[in-house]
Amino acid sequence: MRLVETPLLPEGFKVPASRWEDPATRLRRLIDTEPFVFGPGVYDPHGAELCMYYGFGAVYFSGYSFAIGHLGTTDMDLYTGPEIADGARRTVAALRKFQLTMALGDPEKGVAPKHLEIPPVVVDMDGGYGNLFNVQRTADLYVNAGVAAAHIEDQVLPKRCGHIAGKALISADEMVGKLRMMRAVADDLGRKDFVIIARTDAVSAVDAPDSLRGMDLAIDRALRYLDSGVPDMVWCEFPTSDRKPTEQFANEVRRRFPDAKFAFNWSSSFKWFNDPDPITFGELGELGYKFLFITLAAQHAFGYGFAKLLQGLSEEQQHAYIALQRKEWQVGDDIPTRSHHLFTGVPYHQTMGSVMGASRLGTQFDEKLGEKAV
Q: Is the pLDDT of residue 365 over 50?
Protein backbone atom coordinates (compact mmCIF):
# COMPACT_ATOMS: atom_id res chain seq x y z
CA MET A 1 0.00 0.00 0.00
CA ARG A 2 1.54 3.29 -1.13
CA LEU A 3 0.82 6.21 1.22
CA VAL A 4 0.74 9.86 0.22
CA GLU A 5 -0.04 13.17 1.86
CA THR A 6 -3.29 15.08 1.45
CA PRO A 7 -4.16 18.68 2.41
CA LEU A 8 -7.06 17.26 4.44
CA LEU A 9 -4.69 15.80 7.03
CA PRO A 10 -2.06 17.44 9.26
CA GLU A 11 1.52 17.35 8.04
CA GLY A 12 3.08 13.93 8.47
CA PHE A 13 -0.15 11.95 8.17
CA LYS A 14 -0.93 10.04 4.98
CA VAL A 15 -3.64 8.12 3.14
CA PRO A 16 -3.48 5.30 0.58
CA ALA A 17 -2.64 6.67 -2.86
CA SER A 18 -5.65 4.79 -4.26
CA ARG A 19 -7.82 7.55 -2.76
CA TRP A 20 -7.65 9.27 -6.16
CA GLU A 21 -8.24 6.18 -8.29
CA ASP A 22 -11.58 5.88 -10.08
CA PRO A 23 -13.55 3.37 -7.93
CA ALA A 24 -14.83 1.69 -11.10
CA THR A 25 -11.25 1.15 -12.26
CA ARG A 26 -10.45 -0.36 -8.88
CA LEU A 27 -13.48 -2.66 -9.05
CA ARG A 28 -12.53 -3.84 -12.53
CA ARG A 29 -9.01 -4.64 -11.39
CA LEU A 30 -10.29 -6.62 -8.40
CA ILE A 31 -12.72 -8.55 -10.58
CA ASP A 32 -9.94 -9.38 -13.04
CA THR A 33 -7.38 -10.42 -10.43
CA GLU A 34 -9.31 -11.94 -7.52
CA PRO A 35 -11.23 -15.25 -7.47
CA PHE A 36 -14.30 -13.14 -6.62
CA VAL A 37 -15.20 -9.81 -5.04
CA PHE A 38 -17.64 -9.86 -2.12
CA GLY A 39 -19.76 -6.88 -1.07
CA PRO A 40 -21.90 -7.01 2.08
CA GLY A 41 -25.31 -5.42 1.56
CA VAL A 42 -25.77 -2.09 3.37
CA TYR A 43 -28.24 0.78 3.29
CA ASP A 44 -26.41 3.67 4.92
CA PRO A 45 -22.94 5.18 5.42
CA HIS A 46 -22.50 3.62 8.86
CA GLY A 47 -22.76 0.07 7.53
CA ALA A 48 -20.50 0.91 4.59
CA GLU A 49 -17.85 2.29 6.94
CA LEU A 50 -17.86 -0.97 8.89
CA CYS A 51 -17.35 -2.92 5.67
CA MET A 52 -14.44 -0.63 4.85
CA TYR A 53 -12.94 -1.03 8.33
CA TYR A 54 -12.87 -4.80 7.98
CA GLY A 55 -11.30 -4.64 4.54
CA PHE A 56 -14.04 -5.91 2.24
CA GLY A 57 -13.36 -5.51 -1.46
CA ALA A 58 -16.65 -3.79 -2.22
CA VAL A 59 -19.85 -2.47 -0.69
CA TYR A 60 -23.27 -3.34 -2.08
CA PHE A 61 -25.88 -0.61 -1.61
CA SER A 62 -29.06 -2.66 -1.62
CA GLY A 63 -32.39 -1.32 -2.85
CA TYR A 64 -34.43 -3.58 -0.58
CA SER A 65 -32.26 -2.55 2.36
CA PHE A 66 -32.72 1.09 1.39
CA ALA A 67 -36.50 0.61 1.32
CA ILE A 68 -36.42 -0.94 4.79
CA GLY A 69 -33.82 1.37 6.31
CA HIS A 70 -35.08 4.67 4.94
CA LEU A 71 -38.80 4.16 4.32
CA GLY A 72 -39.65 1.23 6.57
CA THR A 73 -41.31 -0.57 3.67
CA THR A 74 -40.76 -3.31 1.13
CA ASP A 75 -39.02 -3.59 -2.24
CA MET A 76 -41.77 -2.65 -4.71
CA ASP A 77 -40.47 0.57 -6.31
CA LEU A 78 -41.76 2.70 -3.44
CA TYR A 79 -38.82 5.09 -3.61
CA THR A 80 -37.46 7.11 -6.51
CA GLY A 81 -34.14 7.19 -8.34
CA PRO A 82 -33.02 10.51 -6.83
CA GLU A 83 -33.72 9.20 -3.31
CA ILE A 84 -31.50 6.14 -3.56
CA ALA A 85 -28.93 8.08 -5.61
CA ASP A 86 -28.64 10.57 -2.76
CA GLY A 87 -28.20 7.71 -0.28
CA ALA A 88 -25.42 6.32 -2.46
CA ARG A 89 -23.80 9.76 -2.81
CA ARG A 90 -23.74 10.26 0.95
CA THR A 91 -22.28 6.77 1.40
CA VAL A 92 -19.42 7.37 -1.04
CA ALA A 93 -18.67 10.73 0.59
CA ALA A 94 -18.73 9.11 4.04
CA LEU A 95 -16.19 6.47 3.00
CA ARG A 96 -13.81 9.16 1.76
CA LYS A 97 -14.18 11.03 5.06
CA PHE A 98 -13.81 7.81 7.07
CA GLN A 99 -10.48 7.15 5.35
CA LEU A 100 -9.24 10.51 6.66
CA THR A 101 -10.46 10.05 10.22
CA MET A 102 -8.95 6.57 10.48
CA ALA A 103 -5.67 7.79 8.94
CA LEU A 104 -5.35 10.26 11.81
CA GLY A 105 -6.36 7.98 14.67
CA ASP A 106 -6.30 9.81 17.99
CA PRO A 107 -2.90 11.40 18.63
CA GLU A 108 -3.85 12.57 22.14
CA LYS A 109 -4.80 9.08 23.29
CA GLY A 110 -2.09 7.27 21.39
CA VAL A 111 -4.45 5.55 18.95
CA ALA A 112 -2.34 4.80 15.89
CA PRO A 113 -3.46 5.68 12.36
CA LYS A 114 -5.23 2.93 10.43
CA HIS A 115 -4.85 3.06 6.66
CA LEU A 116 -7.94 1.79 4.88
CA GLU A 117 -8.67 1.34 1.20
CA ILE A 118 -11.97 2.79 0.03
CA PRO A 119 -14.14 -0.08 -1.25
CA PRO A 120 -15.96 0.57 -4.53
CA VAL A 121 -19.70 0.95 -4.06
CA VAL A 122 -22.12 -1.04 -6.24
CA VAL A 123 -25.66 0.32 -6.29
CA ASP A 124 -29.07 -1.12 -7.06
CA MET A 125 -30.89 0.73 -9.86
CA ASP A 126 -33.97 -1.53 -9.85
CA GLY A 127 -35.66 -1.13 -13.25
CA GLY A 128 -34.42 2.41 -13.77
CA TYR A 129 -37.44 4.09 -12.10
CA GLY A 130 -39.21 4.77 -15.38
CA ASN A 131 -38.50 4.90 -19.08
CA LEU A 132 -35.26 5.37 -20.97
CA PHE A 133 -34.91 8.97 -19.85
CA ASN A 134 -35.52 8.15 -16.20
CA VAL A 135 -32.61 5.74 -16.62
CA GLN A 136 -30.58 8.59 -18.12
CA ARG A 137 -31.27 10.83 -15.13
CA THR A 138 -30.60 8.14 -12.54
CA ALA A 139 -27.40 6.99 -14.25
CA ASP A 140 -26.20 10.60 -14.29
CA LEU A 141 -26.85 10.87 -10.54
CA TYR A 142 -25.11 7.56 -9.82
CA VAL A 143 -22.04 8.29 -11.91
CA ASN A 144 -21.64 11.77 -10.43
CA ALA A 145 -22.07 10.29 -6.95
CA GLY A 146 -18.82 8.37 -7.46
CA VAL A 147 -20.25 4.86 -7.33
CA ALA A 148 -18.33 2.16 -9.16
CA ALA A 149 -21.16 0.13 -10.63
CA ALA A 150 -24.91 -0.23 -10.88
CA HIS A 151 -27.25 -3.01 -11.89
CA ILE A 152 -30.53 -2.67 -13.71
CA GLU A 153 -33.20 -5.35 -14.12
CA ASP A 154 -35.66 -6.31 -16.82
CA GLN A 155 -38.87 -6.12 -14.80
CA VAL A 156 -42.01 -4.21 -15.65
CA LEU A 157 -42.44 -1.17 -13.40
CA PRO A 158 -43.36 -0.93 -10.61
CA LYS A 159 -40.94 -3.77 -10.00
CA ARG A 160 -40.91 -6.31 -7.18
CA CYS A 161 -38.21 -7.89 -5.09
CA GLY A 162 -36.74 -10.84 -6.97
CA HIS A 163 -38.25 -13.18 -4.40
CA ILE A 164 -41.78 -11.77 -4.35
CA ALA A 165 -44.40 -13.38 -6.59
CA GLY A 166 -45.97 -11.61 -9.55
CA LYS A 167 -42.94 -10.41 -11.51
CA ALA A 168 -43.37 -9.44 -15.15
CA LEU A 169 -40.72 -8.65 -17.75
CA ILE A 170 -40.28 -5.85 -20.25
CA SER A 171 -39.12 -6.79 -23.74
CA ALA A 172 -35.47 -7.61 -24.28
CA ASP A 173 -35.24 -4.72 -26.74
CA GLU A 174 -36.45 -2.23 -24.13
CA MET A 175 -33.96 -3.59 -21.63
CA VAL A 176 -31.10 -3.29 -24.13
CA GLY A 177 -32.10 0.33 -24.71
CA LYS A 178 -31.82 1.02 -20.98
CA LEU A 179 -28.42 -0.65 -20.85
CA ARG A 180 -27.20 1.43 -23.79
CA MET A 181 -28.40 4.59 -22.12
CA MET A 182 -26.48 3.75 -18.94
CA ARG A 183 -23.32 3.20 -20.96
CA ALA A 184 -23.80 6.40 -22.93
CA VAL A 185 -24.26 8.47 -19.76
CA ALA A 186 -21.17 7.04 -18.08
CA ASP A 187 -19.04 7.52 -21.19
CA ASP A 188 -20.31 11.07 -21.67
CA LEU A 189 -19.28 11.88 -18.10
CA GLY A 190 -15.79 10.48 -18.65
CA ARG A 191 -16.36 7.33 -16.59
CA LYS A 192 -15.67 4.69 -19.22
CA ASP A 193 -14.76 2.16 -16.53
CA PHE A 194 -18.17 2.46 -14.86
CA VAL A 195 -19.36 -1.13 -14.40
CA ILE A 196 -22.82 -2.08 -15.68
CA ILE A 197 -24.60 -5.22 -14.49
CA ALA A 198 -27.65 -6.51 -16.36
CA ARG A 199 -30.05 -8.49 -14.20
CA THR A 200 -32.79 -10.78 -15.45
CA ASP A 201 -35.71 -12.04 -13.39
CA ALA A 202 -36.79 -14.40 -16.16
CA VAL A 203 -36.48 -17.66 -14.19
CA SER A 204 -39.53 -16.94 -12.03
CA ALA A 205 -41.39 -14.24 -13.97
CA VAL A 206 -45.10 -14.96 -14.41
CA ASP A 207 -45.48 -12.76 -17.48
CA ALA A 208 -43.07 -12.03 -20.31
CA PRO A 209 -43.39 -11.08 -23.98
CA ASP A 210 -41.45 -14.20 -24.96
CA SER A 211 -42.37 -17.77 -25.86
CA LEU A 212 -39.59 -19.17 -23.70
CA ARG A 213 -40.05 -19.58 -19.96
CA GLY A 214 -38.01 -20.29 -16.86
CA MET A 215 -34.31 -21.06 -17.18
CA ASP A 216 -34.44 -21.13 -20.97
CA LEU A 217 -35.73 -17.58 -21.00
CA ALA A 218 -33.14 -16.45 -18.43
CA ILE A 219 -30.31 -17.84 -20.56
CA ASP A 220 -31.78 -16.30 -23.70
CA ARG A 221 -32.09 -12.91 -21.99
CA ALA A 222 -28.51 -13.05 -20.72
CA LEU A 223 -27.26 -13.83 -24.23
CA ARG A 224 -29.34 -11.00 -25.71
CA TYR A 225 -27.90 -8.52 -23.20
CA LEU A 226 -24.33 -9.66 -23.74
CA ASP A 227 -24.88 -9.48 -27.50
CA SER A 228 -25.46 -5.74 -27.08
CA GLY A 229 -21.87 -5.36 -25.93
CA VAL A 230 -22.90 -3.23 -22.94
CA PRO A 231 -23.01 -5.26 -19.71
CA ASP A 232 -19.80 -6.06 -17.89
CA MET A 233 -21.66 -8.71 -15.92
CA VAL A 234 -25.02 -10.43 -16.00
CA TRP A 235 -27.03 -11.47 -12.97
CA CYS A 236 -29.77 -14.05 -12.95
CA GLU A 237 -32.03 -13.89 -9.91
CA PHE A 238 -32.68 -17.47 -8.81
CA PRO A 239 -35.79 -18.44 -6.81
CA THR A 240 -34.05 -20.96 -4.52
CA SER A 241 -30.62 -21.74 -3.11
CA ASP A 242 -30.35 -24.88 -5.29
CA ARG A 243 -26.88 -25.00 -6.84
CA LYS A 244 -27.95 -26.76 -10.07
CA PRO A 245 -29.65 -23.76 -11.75
CA THR A 246 -26.68 -21.60 -10.73
CA GLU A 247 -24.28 -23.97 -12.45
CA GLN A 248 -26.54 -24.45 -15.49
CA PHE A 249 -26.95 -20.72 -16.10
CA ALA A 250 -23.21 -20.02 -15.96
CA ASN A 251 -22.26 -23.01 -18.09
CA GLU A 252 -24.87 -22.33 -20.78
CA VAL A 253 -24.05 -18.63 -21.10
CA ARG A 254 -20.31 -19.39 -21.28
CA ARG A 255 -20.84 -21.73 -24.20
CA ARG A 256 -21.49 -18.60 -26.25
CA PHE A 257 -19.47 -16.09 -24.22
CA PRO A 258 -16.53 -18.00 -22.67
CA ASP A 259 -15.29 -14.94 -20.76
CA ALA A 260 -18.68 -13.87 -19.43
CA LYS A 261 -18.73 -12.68 -15.84
CA PHE A 262 -21.67 -12.96 -13.48
CA ALA A 263 -23.01 -11.37 -10.33
CA PHE A 264 -24.64 -13.52 -7.67
CA ASN A 265 -27.06 -12.64 -4.90
CA TRP A 266 -26.31 -14.95 -1.96
CA SER A 267 -29.79 -13.96 -0.95
CA SER A 268 -31.06 -13.35 2.56
CA SER A 269 -34.42 -14.68 1.33
CA PHE A 270 -33.05 -18.23 1.40
CA LYS A 271 -32.65 -20.23 4.61
CA TRP A 272 -29.14 -21.32 3.78
CA PHE A 273 -28.85 -23.14 7.09
CA ASN A 274 -31.48 -25.61 5.81
CA ASP A 275 -29.59 -26.29 2.56
CA PRO A 276 -27.65 -29.56 2.88
CA ASP A 277 -25.10 -28.45 0.28
CA PRO A 278 -24.98 -24.64 0.05
CA ILE A 279 -22.86 -23.35 -2.79
CA THR A 280 -19.72 -21.61 -1.52
CA PHE A 281 -18.25 -18.29 -2.53
CA GLY A 282 -15.20 -20.11 -3.87
CA GLU A 283 -17.31 -22.42 -6.04
CA LEU A 284 -19.21 -19.46 -7.41
CA GLY A 285 -15.97 -17.73 -8.30
CA GLU A 286 -14.83 -20.78 -10.25
CA LEU A 287 -18.09 -20.71 -12.24
CA GLY A 288 -17.48 -17.09 -13.23
CA TYR A 289 -19.56 -15.35 -10.59
CA LYS A 290 -17.11 -12.55 -9.91
CA PHE A 291 -19.21 -10.18 -7.82
CA LEU A 292 -21.00 -11.74 -4.85
CA PHE A 293 -23.19 -10.00 -2.32
CA ILE A 294 -25.72 -10.57 0.45
CA THR A 295 -28.42 -8.00 -0.17
CA LEU A 296 -29.82 -7.67 3.34
CA ALA A 297 -26.70 -8.48 5.36
CA ALA A 298 -26.71 -5.24 7.38
CA GLN A 299 -30.48 -5.21 7.84
CA HIS A 300 -30.60 -8.73 9.26
CA ALA A 301 -27.57 -8.15 11.48
CA PHE A 302 -29.03 -4.89 12.81
CA GLY A 303 -32.45 -6.46 13.27
CA TYR A 304 -31.05 -9.39 15.21
CA GLY A 305 -28.63 -7.38 17.37
CA PHE A 306 -31.02 -4.56 18.23
CA ALA A 307 -33.92 -6.96 18.84
CA LYS A 308 -31.79 -8.87 21.34
CA LEU A 309 -30.83 -5.64 23.12
CA LEU A 310 -34.46 -4.49 23.27
CA GLN A 311 -35.54 -7.85 24.66
CA GLY A 312 -32.89 -7.50 27.33
CA LEU A 313 -33.82 -3.91 28.18
CA SER A 314 -37.46 -4.88 28.61
CA GLU A 315 -36.51 -7.66 31.01
CA GLU A 316 -33.36 -6.45 32.75
CA GLN A 317 -33.41 -2.68 32.17
CA GLN A 318 -29.97 -1.06 32.49
CA HIS A 319 -28.24 -4.39 33.08
CA ALA A 320 -28.82 -5.36 29.46
CA TYR A 321 -26.97 -2.31 28.20
CA ILE A 322 -24.13 -2.85 30.67
CA ALA A 323 -23.83 -6.41 29.30
CA LEU A 324 -23.64 -5.01 25.76
CA GLN A 325 -20.85 -2.63 26.76
CA ARG A 326 -18.89 -5.47 28.34
CA LYS A 327 -19.02 -7.28 25.00
CA GLU A 328 -18.07 -4.13 23.09
CA TRP A 329 -15.06 -3.42 25.26
CA GLN A 330 -13.84 -6.99 25.68
CA VAL A 331 -10.04 -7.02 25.53
CA GLY A 332 -8.72 -8.31 22.23
CA ASP A 333 -11.94 -7.82 20.28
CA ASP A 334 -11.75 -5.24 17.49
CA ILE A 335 -15.11 -3.45 17.57
CA PRO A 336 -14.47 -0.02 16.00
CA THR A 337 -17.85 1.46 16.94
CA ARG A 338 -17.36 0.99 20.68
CA SER A 339 -15.83 4.46 20.80
CA HIS A 340 -18.39 6.42 18.84
CA HIS A 341 -16.18 9.52 19.15
CA LEU A 342 -13.23 7.83 17.45
CA PHE A 343 -15.38 6.06 14.86
CA THR A 344 -17.13 9.26 13.81
CA GLY A 345 -13.92 11.27 13.77
CA VAL A 346 -14.01 13.60 16.76
CA PRO A 347 -10.18 13.56 17.03
CA TYR A 348 -9.92 14.39 13.33
CA HIS A 349 -12.29 17.35 13.61
CA GLN A 350 -10.59 18.67 16.72
CA THR A 351 -7.12 18.36 15.20
CA MET A 352 -8.02 19.82 11.82
CA GLY A 353 -9.88 22.62 13.56
CA SER A 354 -6.58 23.67 15.09
CA VAL A 355 -4.64 23.15 11.85
CA MET A 356 -7.05 25.29 9.86
CA GLY A 357 -7.16 28.00 12.52
CA ALA A 358 -10.71 27.51 13.76
CA SER A 359 -9.80 27.80 17.43
CA ARG A 360 -13.30 27.03 18.67
CA LEU A 361 -12.98 23.60 17.02
CA GLY A 362 -9.52 22.92 18.40
CA THR A 363 -8.52 20.89 21.43
CA GLN A 364 -7.32 23.59 23.80
CA PHE A 365 -10.75 24.12 25.34
CA ASP A 366 -11.82 20.50 25.09
CA GLU A 367 -13.49 19.29 28.23
CA LYS A 368 -11.25 16.69 29.87
CA LEU A 369 -13.42 13.75 30.76
CA GLY A 370 -12.15 10.82 32.73
CA GLU A 371 -11.06 7.88 30.57
CA LYS A 372 -13.69 5.65 32.14
CA ALA A 373 -16.41 8.06 31.06
CA VAL A 374 -15.50 8.11 27.40
A: no
- On whether residue 352 sits in a domain, the answer given is no
Q: Which domain holds residue 122?
A: 3-302
Q: Please, is 239 exposed, middle or buried when counting C-beta atoms within 10 Å of its C-beta (0-12, 13-18, 19+)?
A: middle
| CB proximity list for 51: less than 8 A, separation 6 or greater | 39, 40, 42, 59, 119
Model pTM greater than 0.85? yes
CATH code of 106's domain = 3.20.20.60
Nearest-5° Cα angle at 82, 197 to 98: 80
| Residue 172 or 77, more confident | 172
Question: For 239-263, how does the pLDDT look when each residue is reduced to its tens digit (9 = 90+)?
Answer: 999 999 999 999 999 999 999 999 9
Is 158 within a domain? yes
Bridge-based pairing state of the strands 262-265 and 14-16: unpaired
Active site residues: 161
For residue 84, give the 3-state DSSP assignment: helix
Residues 6+ apart with CB under 8 A from 195: 24, 27, 28, 31, 122, 148, 149, 150, 232, 233
**Cis bond before residue 158 (omega within 30° of 0):** yes
Is residue 165, in this structure, part of any structural domain at all? Answer: yes
